[in-house]
Design brief:
- The chain is mainly alpha-helical.
- The protein has one domain.
- α3 packs across α4, α4 packs antiparallel against α8 and α6 runs parallel beside α8.
- It is 75% helix and 0% strand.
């Protein structure tokens, strides 16, 4: 297998059908579905475990870590979403987004050949494909961002009312006019700008996470190729040493990246929902 074939193999999903089309709504990436679901269950179990271990005395390390995350998210939610009633749902949703995406991103820290190798032996097919980082799948990140969009639409209607939000769509950001013709033209422009804003925020929200995690996954694959070039020669040992050093350095740095990307996605979620509460 050449280097190009190795990378292409690792960047191909376990799907229900083979498709090379960039957008094909009949394709289901089963690896992304399974890993996202399993890690979602892991998050729920961790939350249940933390809830059962809560004590009013000196907290353990696990409880302390959970409390720090909850307080961090709650303080950010209070600073951005000023409606106390909304925060009862928004703050837990933001916490879920942060921890779940962190777990999805953390799959990138596993050796790139570990789970695909095990899967190939389980299926008995050396050509079996498996991608283990759900957030390196654009369908997952865009699904998450669309979920945030739906929450924004919900709060726009809940806070402003259907009529109030409809009025906002045609008067912001450029205002309106007393002249009927000018008012209609401004309404069309305002509505178009509002739609562009919703689409741009949703696409950039999902693409930012996808792009960073895809790039991180690709770098791990390139580092793995250094180890794959090992031979019992001076050059081979040099490549193996570079593989170990580069892999370790990138993994340590990547811990910051996966945490930062989860935090950024959570903050943008709060910001977009907070904007849905603001009247123009």
């Amino acid at each position: 297998m050449t280097s190009g074939e190795y990378i292409q193999h690792h960047l191909t999903h376990l799907s229900n059908i083979e498709s090379s089309a960039p957008l094909n709504f009949h394709v289901v990436h089963w690896d992304s579905v399974v890993f996202s679901s399993v890690l979602g269950i892991v998050f729920l179990l961790l939350g249940l475990l933390a809830a059962r271990r809560v004590t009013s005395g000196v907290p353990g390390r696990f409880q302390a870590a959970m409390e720090v995350m909850i307080e961090m998210v709650d303080s950010q939610a209070k600073a951005i979403v000023h409606n106390a009633t909304s925060r009862k749902l928004v703050a837990p949703m933001a916490l879920t987004v942060f921890i779940w995406i962190f777990l999805l991103n953390a799959m990138d820290l596993l050796p790139v050949d570990l789970l695909p190798f095990l899967f190939q032996h389980i299926t008995g097919d050396p050509e079996s494909k498996l991608r283990v980082v759900p957030t390196a799948d654009i369908s997952v990140t865009m699904g998450l961002s669309v979920g945030v969009l739906i929450a924004c639409l919900y709060y726009n209607i809940k806070i402003k009312g259907a009529g109030g939000w409809a009025h906002e769509l045609v008067v912001a950001p450029f205002g309106t006019s007393k002249n009927p013709i000018a008012a209609v033209l401004l309404g069309i422009v305002n509505f178009g700008m509002q739609m562009i804003e919703f689409v741009a925020k949703t696409v950039s929200h999902g693409m930012r996470l996808y792009g960073n995690m895809y790039a991180g996954e690709l770098i791990f694959l390139l580092i793995a190729l250094l180890g794959g070039a090992f031979t019992f020669t001076a050059g081979g040992f040099g490549l193996a040493l570079m593989h170990i050093i580069a892999g370790t350095a990138w993994a340590i740095f990547h811990i910051l990246i996966i945490t930062l990307q989860a935090f950024v996605f959570m903050m943008l979620t709060l910001v977009y929902i907070g904007q849905a509460h603001d009247a123009h």
